[in-house]
Amino acid sequence: MAQCKGRYADQELTFTNGREFYTEKRCSRKALDGELCKRCEKNEKIPFDPRHQLEQFQGKVGEEYFKKSVLYGSPWFLKKVERDNYEIAKDVLAIAKQAQRDAIYGTQMPRKKKEETPAAAPAPVPEVKPEVKPEVNPEVKPKKPRAPRKKKEETPTPPPPPAPEPTAPIAVESAEEPLEALEVIKISVTLKTINGKQVWYDSKKSKVYELKKDKSVGKYLGRFDSAEDKIADFPDSDVDV
Could you write out the DSSP letters of every residue in 209-240? Predict the structure, then answer.
């Protein structure tokens, strides 16, 4: 089966003034009974719209181009070159011509194979025999015997002094009364200003204590009278009378 002859726009190229045109490409499918494949036969029936150059079926390769086609070699292209003096760079022209040839001859044209010339066999590499140097026995000089090291004279350590003999505890009578353990009372206090004076204040029992210069808690001053905002004389309940 031959290759389909359907023609379509492919690569976008430009004149030297920036105006665009397209190269052409050939449908890569196999033709059926005629010269087109099923898809190109269907596309051939769709009216050509120049606004959609890339998607439109543009006739068969080797035949005349559509009047409004902007492919290389079309009437529009020749008019731009011949009448309007549009110029095209050599490398761009080479690309367009090659694309036109490929489309006309198709991708099934057998290409001549280059005759392969057998590569010349590489020249044999001469064997390089390693140079063997005669072994030379170096003269071994006798080592001088080392002088024996002098041992350090050990000084005898004196024996440890004898441990003192245990003595029996001596009971001593005392006329003083035994000491009694004092009960420690912990309180939680905060700084408070009463009647213009800063003091330590126990909020649980409303007790007031002196604020010393070193910020420590001083002596008991009394109870806080919140109604009169003053310190009232009241005996300390934590002190035994």
Answer: EEE-TTS-EEEEEEEEETTTTEEEP---TTS-
H-helix or E-strand containing 81? helix 75-82
- Tokens matching residue 151: 């041992």
Q: Largest alpha-carbon pair distance within the chain?
A: 145
Q: Which of 91, 124, 78 is nearest to 11 (CA)?
A: 91
Of 212, 214, 216, 219, nearest in space to 239 by CA: 219
Tell me how far apart the alpha carbons of residues 99 and 107 are, in angstroms, rounded to a whole number: 11
Confidence (pTM) = 0.44
Tokens of 169: 């505890």
Which distant-in-sequence residues (6+ apart) come within 8 Å of 66 by Cβ?
A: 48, 58, 59, 74
pLDDT digits (tens, 9 = 90+) for 94-149: 999 999 999 999 865 444 455 545 444 444 544 545 455 555 455 556 566 676 67
Q: How long a stretch of residues is the chain?
A: 241
